[in-house]
Fold:
Amino acid sequence: MIQITLPDNSVREYEGPVNGYEITKSLSNSLAKEVLSVSVNGEVWDLMRPINANSTVKLNTWESSEGKETFWHSSAHLMAEAIEFYYPGTKFGIGPTVDTGFYLPEGNVLTDKDLQKIEQKMLELARQKNAIVRSEISKAEALKMFAEKNDQLKLELISELEDGTISIYNQGNFTDLCRGPHLPNTEYIKAIKLTSLAGAYWRGNEKNKMLTRVYGVTFPKQKMLEEYLIMLEEAKKRDHRKIGKEMDLFAFSESVGQGLPLWLPKGTQLRLQLQDFLQKVQKKYGYEQVMTPHIGDVKLYKTSGHYEKYGKDSFQPISTPVEGESYLLKPMNCPHHCEIYKIRPKSYKDLPVRMAEFGTVYRYEMSGELHGLTRVRSFTQDDAHIFCRPDQLKDEFKKVIDIVFIIFKALSFDNWTAQISLRDPNKPDKYIGTLENWEKAEQAIIEACEEKGLETVTELGEAAFYGPKLDFMIKDALGRSWQLGTIQVDYNLPERFQLEYVGSDDQRHRPVMIHRAPFGSMERFVAVLIEHTAGKFPLWLTPEQAVVLPISEKYNDYAKKVSDFLNNSDIRTVVDERNEKIGRKIRDNELKRTPYLLIVGENEAENDTISVRRQGEGDKGAMKTSEFADFILKEVREQLSGL
RNA sequence: GCCACUUUAGCUCAGUUGGUAGAGCAGCUCAUUCGUAAUGAGCAGGUCGCGGGUUCGAGUCCCGCAAUUGGCUCCA
Structure:
């Protein structure tokens, strides 16, 4: 007996052996069109593959990740077939899913114009309804087959496989090595959009040759493609680079340099507001603010170990008129903070010391890596270092997690994920510090997260070179994940800087250090905030909270009076003094995303009132200026209440 | 850094097979002084990313460089 779980989670039984296609066909014709593959005892199989009795079977449709993967995998083969039609002899790498992707070898470089051509060919091939047929051959046969094609990429893959049978798939004139699973035939693929071309290192290794990768998406229905394209358009509208330009928040200048952001007045206002907010939270949690220079003696970074990583092949050290003297633009704030710690001897009663700084750091990122505000060469970390006794570590770590959540709550970030990044045990030379300390640090993070009930994923090999960390990620408008907040445990720097405190036993002990930046960096945080809110920031953050719109120039004086009053009440207000009709002023200021539009004319000037309009919501009626001020201050207070 | 695309007025973009540049918006001036999403008219604005080359002639073709964008690798 075969037990079958339908897409709606109902369960049926079926006599075997039989294949997935026959099962769905017998259930209903409409279902037969929707099921793309089957999961047999947890393994995804082709529909046509015979299933033995005593199996549990799940039917995979487009709605399931297994079904989608099958669909896109076959799409990748279809694309390969189309590419081979135009470029015979093309060697294909692997076609990972998520979106469909393919590699081409060097020398066979495609251009955007090819994409349309290939897309058309794919549709044509799909309509031929070619069956996608699995067959199994021995490893020796497979090696022979791809040696004949002189396909080094595939030979490399095959030689790494275990002996035994190897599956290959054929559709139309195209045959390729593949584990599967695949759709029964190409007809399922109804809508195709090849989106972009990119270079990609073979097997993701920089040392290997660069192949061409084609990105695209396919769908079982034309309408789904249309919806997808609309979604992409919408996402583009939220892009922080576009909104940053529109709202005059930040800019770049070729003359200043790549990856060096210029914060415009409104962007600066926004950033200062965020900094002020975090400072207040940190004060409550016992942090003290410090300030340190943007450069430091190279020796400092040799002590810390940062010179090896950041000094040598990034921004070159700055030389001075004095022979042998050189300074480094600081890539991190920690060494400076360690030196502050050392200024005066510490007692166990002094700990924890929590030292915070909005510290601007410089890192020479590779040019191709730069991206808007999310990846730049000069950025300001909302940095702090906590120096504590080992027995305080876990507690301090948990308090930092609390701060991260205060921030996420204040900005209603609810789509975060948390990742514990540990060292890669197989690459000990990538990290500095003793194994014992690494283990202690990793344990502290894991336990703190457990005790906080935090849902996390754990990644090996993602740790910083000096210690393990807990990272918080947020997705941007286009679904790309960015790392924001980070909390790192470090036994290593205290060792290198020989940090000490005197314990109650009158002995010298080594403190533990926590590096933490809940925003990550001001640049990246603002970028993600822009995409998260589409530029409609919470009122407390908005650079211009209200704009006064005089009906005509006759009321500019009164408008000024209103704006002065509001500014004196700590409400950031400007006046739109242009000689334009009121409809025009409303439109322009709505588009600028100003939260409150205050219209003043004859009525308002006489009664000392303003006519209030909330962005996106329309007319809210008239009120006294002082009433409005109270109303706004209350709204801001509420947004920040409980924080 | 590597692969591919792109780069024309402050912004968004046109510019045919090579014959020395256009629009809308923004800006400025004038008129208008207006009641809840675009008042009208006029003016000005460009080393066509930068540097070479081919040509009688290059925004357009070729080469180099730079920056942007999408990826790879790397990372806050």
About this structure: The first strand of chain A starts at residue 2 and ends at 5.
